[in-house]
ImmA/IrrE family metallo-endopeptidase (Metabacillus fastidiosus), 129 residues
Amino acid sequence: MSEDQLGKLCDIVSALGGNVNFTAEKLCFNSETLTIHVPFKWGLEDLYGLAHEIGHLKDHLENELNYDLWRNNSAYRLTVEMRAWTYSYDILMEAGIHTSNWSNHVNQKLSSYLNFPYQSLDALEGEAV
Ligand SMILES: [Zn+2]
């Protein structure tokens, strides 16, 4: 990866009104501060991960994510994660980052969200989403 590509991803975060913090150990998005915490690891798959977190930022700005449901309902979590991965592809294209292994990477990540017991979307009925 190049520093230029990382810089482009950071520019996209700024344009959305978010922040990048390079001090955390684990990649994550904090919706309260609109900050993406990123470790100092910058292989291609790490850029996919950052683009995914930018996807969460975009999704949060548009949909106001429900983090209790994200934690407790696997169907909701899978839907939210898939949306973030969908956004990530456009973000990577916008930043000019090579997406050759992107679909394999996403397949692996999505299967990891399918924790059992799996709660169906029907379990969301009556819940505010
Ligand atoms: Zn995610």
Q: What stands out?
A: The domain at 3-113 is CATH 1.10.10 (Arc Repressor Mutant, subunit A). The mean pLDDT is 86.
